[in-house]
Design brief:
Structural class: alpha/beta
Strand order of the largest sheet: 3-10-4-9-8-5
Shape: elongated
Number of domains: 2
Order of helices and strands: EEEHEHEHEEEHEHEHHHHHHHEEHHHHH
Number of strands: 12
Helix content: 40-55%
Oligomer: single chain
């Protein structure tokens, strides 16, 4: 299928999905592999533009599941020996001296479960791709075989555009399952919360998601920028440095948007802990009123940022909300400044998780009535 950009007709394959759907496909393949360890799962190729997080997604999933993980970039292979290994003379009792290949050091040696990631596979030259064909088909080459319970995953950049890639032919494409990762801001925000990305950065991306898929502005370059500013407490005192750092890794319009973001005090939005742990929710409500009001206009985008962060914070916690946290959550949902459609979407996202502590929201008359009327 084709993926539109401003200048190119990019070519990718498989359904266009967010990171959660990619994880679902990988988890399914890993589950089947463990249920049937004697079978080799079909390799999976994850397509997507640069910097969108394909590599990190696979690596993080392997780490979270406790699986072994091996990363290799075939584009760095200069000769077939980097893939197949080097020949070595061995002495045998029946044939005398024979030539055998010694597998490259990166090849997995221990049984899985594990994931072998061939990153940016279509940046490799055609000779290397031909050598990978047998690996895709049989999980082995002429010189070595992968251990049992290893899943082969590949990533690739789109064809048909400005990427320096080698077009994959049908014989190679049909040896894999395909899926295309696209940026989806709420899925990214869930990952960012888990990865402890600077919360000012999370607020910025949720406020300006349209900036993320620029030429230099990508999820990866944004995380680099947010890491660089993490040590700066008061961003207003470092505006020249912020511009230098932004221009070093982001599109110019993204840097300007971030400086405006600071100018309007959006980097000081209250975080979920401040809202839910507040001893005086009235003070929090006043603060929310102030940061979401722009003259006579209510900043619905800012309210959406705050509700998204609370949803991600609550749903990623293992423990249920305390009595105080639940009471503050209830008060937040019932705030007059929340428009009814955002209030409904917020309450629905929480209760659809089916977590017992959140299902208590149905017992709050105003919230329960709102949810039941829209079911």
């Amino acid at each position: 299928m084709a993926n539109q950009s401003t200048s190119y007709q990019y070519i990718t394959y498989g359904a266009k999905v967010n990171s959660g759907e990619v994880q679902r496909l990988l988890d399914h393949a890993l589950g089947v592999m463990q249920q049937h360890p004697e079978e080799r799962p079909t390799p999976i190729c994850i397509w997507g533009t640069h910097g969108i997080g394909k590599t990190e997604l696979v690596r993080d999933l392997a780490k979270e599941r406790g699986y072994q993980f091996v990363y290799v970039a075939p584009a760095q292979f200069e000769e077939m020996g980097d893939l197949l290994g080097m020949p070595q003379i061995a002495q045998t009792t029946t044939k005398g001296e024979v030539t055998r290949f010694v597998a490259p050091e990166w090849v997995p040696q221990q049984p899985g479960p594990g994931i072998l990631l061939l990153d940016d596979v279509n940046r490799a030259d055609d000779r290397i791709l031909r050598g990978i064909m047998q690996l895709l088909q049989n999980y082995e080459t002429i010189s070595w075989a992968m251990p049992q319970q290893w899943l082969l995953v590949l990533t690739a950049n789109p064809d048909g555009g400005d990427y320096s890639v080698t077009t994959l032919d049908d014989a190679m494409l049909t040896r894999m399952l395909h899926i295309t990762l696209e940026f989806e801001v709420k899925a990214w925000a869930r990952w960012a919360e888990h990865a402890k990305v600077d919360e000012r950065g999370i607020h910025f991306v949720l406020t300006y998601p349209e900036l993320v898929t620029g030429r230099r502005t990508t999820p990866r370059s944004l995380v680099q920028f947010f890491s660089a500013i993490r040590s700066l407490d008061n961003l207003r005192e470092h505006l020249p440095l912020l511009k230098l750092l932004g221009d070093a890794c982001l599109d110019e319009n993204t840097t300007q948007a971030f400086l405006s973001f600071i100018h309007f005090n959006l980097d000081r939005l209250p975080n979920p802990e401040e809202i839910l742990d507040a001893d005086d929710f009235g003070a929090v409500a006043q603060r929310l009123e102030k940061v979401t009001q722009d003259g006579d206009t209510k900043r619905l985008d800012v309210l959406s940022v705050i509700t998204t962060r609370i949803i991600n914070y609550v749903l990623q916690r293992k423990e249920e909300l305390t009595a105080k946290e639940f009471e503050n959550l209830k008060k937040f949902i019932l705030l007059d400044l929340l428009p009814n459609d955002l209030r409904l979407a917020f309450a629905r996202d929480l209760t659809q998780s089916k977590r017992p502590g959140l299902m208590r929201l149905f017992a709050v008359p105003e919230i329960g009535q709102l949810l039941l009327n829209r079911m």
